[in-house]
Amino acid sequence: MVNKNIPTTKKSSKRLLRKRKRVFLHRFGAILIIVIPIIVISFLGIQLYQASAYNAFYTTDLNPETFKNDSLPLYINEDLNKEIFGQGGVIDNEYYFEIIGSPFEFIWQPEEFPIKKDVQVSATFKGNTFLELGIPCIACNQENYRWEPFYDPLKNPPAITTLFEKNTENNYTKNSITEIKNELVGSQVFYVYLEDKIDLSITKISLNPHSAEKNILVTLTNLEGTIVWEEELPHVTHEETSFRFEAALEEKGIYKLSIVNSLDDFIITNLSINTHAIASADTIHSKITIDTSIDEWITISKQIEGEFKDKNAINFVLRNQILEEKKKKEDIIRERGFTIAQEFKDFLIWKKDNAPVLHFVVPDEESTLREFLALSIPEKRVVEENKDLGIVRDAPEGFATTPTTVNTDLRGNHSFYLYLSDSFSSDISIKELNWYDGADDITITLSTKNEGRKLCQRTFFDDGNVSTDKQEHTTTIPFECNNLTPGIYLLSFEESSSKKDYVINKLTVNTNKIIVKNGILNLQPLPLYTNVTTEKNIKFYYWHENLDQEITFTSKGKQLSLSLTKEDKGRGVFYPLTAGLWEIYASKGNAVISNADFAFSPEHWFIVEPDYIVTKKIDDSTILLKNIAITVL
Questions:
Q1: For residue range 572-628, what is the model confidence (pLDDT) as tens digits?
Q2: Is 251 part of any domain?
Q3: Phi, psi angle pair for 617, to nearest 5°
Q4: 114 and 62 within one domain
Q5: Relative to the CA of 499, which of 106, 251, 480, 614 has its CA 20 to 30 Å away?
Q6: Helices within 53-182 (DSSP H only)
Q7: How many domains does the chain have?
């Protein structure tokens, strides 16, 4: 009998093989556990070493073949037909283009991703303008770029050398005085050349002396940004106040003079300083006498840390904010229906689409802008006021400073065009409705029409009732603004909550020329007047019950009508009006009427939109660009 508990040779061999296999797999796995990390670490180490040891130089000129050519490691990512490019050419076997717009994008595709490596971005150009470099940003939340100064003609060599050469003892008049009598509104920044001292006189007016920020800070810094002198101007009265400061300087050179507060709620009526070399950073009030032009090719570089989102294609942007602001302003003028009709010296004359063509005048180099306009502008046509260019409009026909009262309920935010002489005075009655919860502070502002510069401001604070009990509360407040020059101004009312939880129920102003800008919501039936120059669609909108009503339009004995039905509730209805002065009457009121300006009587109407606009060219903000380079350091 065979004992089944005694192992056979065949079974023992199988167990031994399985055991040896387990041992082998265990040992092999242990080896893999050790070897694989070594291989991975070695590979990553090699990659890291290659990246850290990676040095390279990439460059491109503005050859049209490099535009949008993503087969190149560095290329211009712009369409050559884009309006930012002017004339081009070739110099020293390199293509260049005039850059007349902004921004300008180029893309770098590195052969090795530069991990924690510094990268140097360079550009070779000729010109006199401020440039910023947009660097791809990982930490930025919404912005794709971190913007840093790239070129400043008042700080970067060789521009600074040129400035010193042009403004030292050879042609600098010691003890000279520059006096600026223009009204400078808000914060101002100047570059000045000074020798042994600063002697500064400032006369200013505070627009909002009751604001939280009381003082205006005046600082003088060197080009490295170190403050060498500073003072504060008290900010507590509407009256003109004069200050004079004098301080010794350790060395002569170019300094930055800043006169600022965060609210920009002051006017400098006179500024005097002991130098004739002064350049305003504000192009509107430019008093530039320092020559910063560089008529030679220069190369400017910016070193940055190589932390980028995309490892394959890294986008950079050069921008010129002066050009961007210029384009925005010109786009706004075009949207208003103007096109460029004539150039005169450093000026552009824009014509309203429906205005008469300019009289043909051969420009005379000796003529002033005022003389040229007097000859070229058709009679009885209006040029937009621009005090900085010496253009001042005549007072509207029939203008008087007699008090005018608007005695109707205007609900919510409204803006008014006013023609004023030397001052503004008003009594404003505001009724709080308390239909909605929360506080409703109302800011009342008088500003310039064209630039929107705030001249005077007052806040009407909530009555303290933040409930919805509909308990009305009416308050009358005075609002004044002095030291004005004759012209068109904008009076605006802005509610902090935008709930239309108040009405302007009475407004008295010291002018008979007052127009509601672009829309009105009057709660009572009231005849309104608008002067249409070309066919325009007037919009009507109501959202409350039982406000279906008849709208009548009357002009030169002709009467038209529009019926707002119940089906029109909550949707806009448009009605076309042809050219002419129209009376519009809504039988029930309480409907928003918009897409035009409105007067409360024909005598209140005056021409707000001009026939022609004059702007100053900003040609010195363009550059000639011929080379972009990136160096991995």
A1: 999 999 989 999 999 999 999 999 999 999 999 998 988 899 988 765 567 889 999
A2: yes
A3: -70, 155
A4: yes
A5: 480
A6: 159-167
A7: 4
